[in-house]
Write a structure and sequence with these properties.
Blueprint (H helix, E strand, L loop, with lengths): L2 E6 L3 H13 L5 E7 L3 E3 L4 H5 L9 E3 H4 L5 E5 L2 E5 L4 E4 L3 E3 L2 E4 L3 E3 L7 H4 L1 E2 L3 H20 L3 H7 L1 E5 L3 H20 L8 E5 L11 H14 L2 E4 L4 E4 L3 E4 L2 E4 L2 E4 L3 E3 L10 E2 L4 E2 L12 E3 L18 H19 L13 E5 L5 E5 L2 E3 L1 H20 L2 H11 L8 H6 L9 H20 L8 H5 L1 E2 L3 E2 L10 E12 L3 E12 L2 E13 L1 E2 L2 E2 H10 L3 H24 L3 H17 L3 E2 L4 H9 L10 H18 L20
Helix pairs in contact: 1-9, 5-6, 10-11, 13-16, 16-17, 17-18
Length: about 650
């Protein structure tokens, strides 16, 4: 008999639970339904980047149909108005849903702690809409301030306060500090007129981190970014133009509240037992609530560790509790006993703007640059899990190339965009070159007899023909050195190579040669050539056939635009092989530089990469999410079910 699992909420926990059930429950005759009021999944950890105008808003939301395409998860866009746990029924605004197992993953919302006027007048940073609203508001404040004649009102418009010095608050104020430089310049406003304030009741910023990282962050914000940090300061009241704090009033039209969360509004209608200051749903150590088959995960569930304290409302908790609840559902279906869900936190990291971060990974403090890299890698890992290769690719492109804020000198140049079709002629020319080189070698007998030593200008035993004009009086190569750089370990030589016949130079070409790992009389590449590639006619034939086939393959790949990036890397590798062995001749130097250009997506314009790469990503997603190889996919994508109101 088919069992029904309904997941309410498409946040980190809900998505994790749905993917886990789809992947691990293939043989369990399970119908999986994911319900959310939106048709997208929001990257909540990146909201500050949109609010601070570092990224476009579309970069932080991912269509659910893209995450769950080619899976057995049924997507429904609906809002659940009533949870009837007694009858195992959910009542939505569009229809009713029966279930055998229910995963409540409705997330959290900002907590205002009863502060008068805060909810009505402060901005929150807890959703896609919040981030867009803050960004547009900050921009309007500068535009209005540029025209404002009243000094007091101008000051209010240019004063921006953030409440809460935890992860979200610090990241938000860091983004603002970078963006306001651009806004001030665009609106002819002096940067010193802009006031940025971070407020918190505690005695230090980022209290979850150790004191050294906290002090490091504090110093960076105050000394480098010009942020006023007001600690041990409580907010007592807020009006449209004033924040009343324990240390005086702040005149402003902008307070971004990031100082705490509680269980979301939907939890109030659940009828489930709640606990703690945040009102999270009480669960046992398997994520199970008081009702049979009903699990609460992520921010809304009060799953606790050995100390009895609920785990922090963080992404790792959401993903691991979602996976854990899904695993226990499968255990129940299989007649097994549910197991304890234990959340293991691997570390924390906070980015304060684009160039500075602090982190603690596995108990170790990392330097700032490595913390920034780790933040990228964490997001890359998560996006790879839910979207395959296209998720990390788009994320890194947006972070490294499409970033909106002021860029450093080099960034301004390497982030410039160019249409891929401009590279089409270059790609085709490279392809023809490699193909003709390979065909030429075939016609010259490279498949029939040894040619590599002659081609290399070398004889067996790796004796340079240039040491004397040739061992034979009839011909050989003469090397006329132009200049060289001898660093012993790495040596560079640029010279003319003249082919000699009867003592007369019949051809002349300039070449460059690099010796690597040169220690005294030992030279790595000549050693390889002598002891391997030219050690026998058999090895010589093997290597020259491989070189010929590689050239033909590179030509066909570039001409068809198939795996162009790999073909470009292969071209660079061939150039590196030539320059360290036979020498790289002047008429072929261009290939290395052209390969760098075609690495930038040249195969996606008038090439098979336009079709092959998305298809391969779908194949990988099918294997990863379904544990099943699938090569043919329907043309029509699965869309979220949107039913008409009854």
């Amino acid at each position: 008999m088919t069992k029904k699992a309904v997941i309410v909420g498409a946040g980190y926990a809900g998505v994790a639970a749905a993917l886990y059930l789809n992947k691990k429950g293939k043989k369990d005759n399970l119908e999986i339904t994911l319900i959310d009021k939106n048709d997208y999944h929001t990257l909540l950890t990146e909201l500050h980047e949109v609010a601070g105008n570092r990224q476009d808003e579309e970069t932080i939301r991912i269509a659910l149909k893209d995450i769950f395409r080619d899976t057995n998860v049924r997507l429904v866009q609906d809002s659940i108005d009533h949870f009837d746990f007694e009858n195992k029924r959910l009542v939505g605004s569009r229809e009713e849903y029966s279930y055998d197992y229910c995963v409540v993953a409705i997330g959290s919302k900002p907590a205002f702690y009863g502060i008068e006027g805060l909810e009505e007048n402060a901005f929150t940073l807890w959703s896609y809409d919040d981030a867009v609203e803050i960004r547009d508001h900050v921009r309007r404040c500068f535009e209005k301030a540029a025209l404002e004649q009243d000094p007091a009102e101008r000051s209010r418009l240019l004063t921006f306060a953030v409440g809460g010095a935890g992860f979200t608050g610090v990241e938000m104020i860091g983004e603002l500090a970078h963006w306001v430089k651009t806004l001030a310049r665009e609106n002819n406003i002096e940067r010193k007129e802009v006031r940025l304030i971070l407020i918190d009741m505690l005695d230090r910023v980022l209290p979850v981190l150790d004191e050294k990282n906290s002090a490091k962050s504090h110093k960076y914000m105050t000394e480098k970014l010009g942020i006023e940090v007001m600690l041990e300061t409580g907010i007592n009241k807020m009006s449209e133009t004033t924040i009343e704090t324990s240390k005086g009033n702040i005149e402003t039209r902008t307070l971004i509240w990031c100082a705490g969360v509680c269980c979301s509004n939907e939890s109030e209608s659940l009828g489930l037992e709640r606990q703690g200051r945040g009102g999270r749903i009480k669960v046992d150590d398997t994520c199970l609530t008081e009702h049979e088959g009903v699990y609460a995960v992520g921010d809304c569930g009060a799953l606790a560790g050995d100390d009895g304290i609920p785990y922090a409302a963080m992404v790792e908790n959401a993903i691991q509790s979602g996976d854990g609840a899904a695993a226990n559902i499968l255990r129940q279906i299989r007649g097994q006993k549910p197991e304890r869900v234990e959340v293991k936190f691997h570390g924390t990291m906070v980015c304060i703007g684009n160039y500075f971060a602090v982190s603690e990974i596995m108990g170790k403090r990392l330097p700032s640059w490595l913390s920034v890299v780790m933040k990228f890698m964490v997001n890359v890992h998560y996006l790879f899990e839910i979207m395959g290769f296209r998720g990390p690719f788009n994320y890194l492109k947006n972070e490294l190339v499409n970033r909106r804020q002021d860029k450093l000198f080099l960034e301004k140049h390497y982030s410039r965009k160019m249409q891929a079709w401009w590279l089409f002629p270059l790609r085709m020319f490279m392809g023809f070159y490699w193909l003709l080189e390979g065909i030429k070698k075939v016609t010259e007998g490279w498949f029939n007899g040894p040619k590599l030593a002659e081609f290399s200008g070398l004889s067996r035993g790796y004796q340079l023909a240039s040491d004397a004009v040739s061992a034979a009086t009839g011909g050989g190569l003469r090397i006329d050195e132009i200049f060289d750089i001898k660093l012993h370990i790495v040596n560079l030589e640029v010279a003319y190579a003249s082919k000699m016949i009867e003592g007369v130079a019949v051809t002349k070409d300039m070449f460059a040669k690099i010796d690597i790992f040169n220690f005294g009389s030992f030279n790595l590449v000549p050693w390889i050539m002598e002891n391997w590639a030219l050690s026998s006619q058999g090895w010589e034939m093997f290597f020259q056939i491989v070189v010929t086939l590689v050239e033909i393959a590179l030509g066909l790949m570039l001409l068809s635009g198939t795996f162009t990036f790999l073909a470009s890397v292969g071209t660079i590798a061939m150039m590196a092989m030539f320059v360290t062995s036979t020498g790289l001749y002047f008429h072929t130097w261009w290939l290395g530089f052209a390969a760098i250009a075609t690495m930038g997506g040249a195969g996606r314009a008038f090439g098979m990469d336009h079709y092959v790469l998305p298809w391969l990503n779908r194949v990988w997603e099918s294997i990863w999410k379904n544990r099943k190889l699938k090569l043919i996919f329907p043309r029509q994508k699965k869309s979220i079910r949107k039913q008409k109101l009854k």
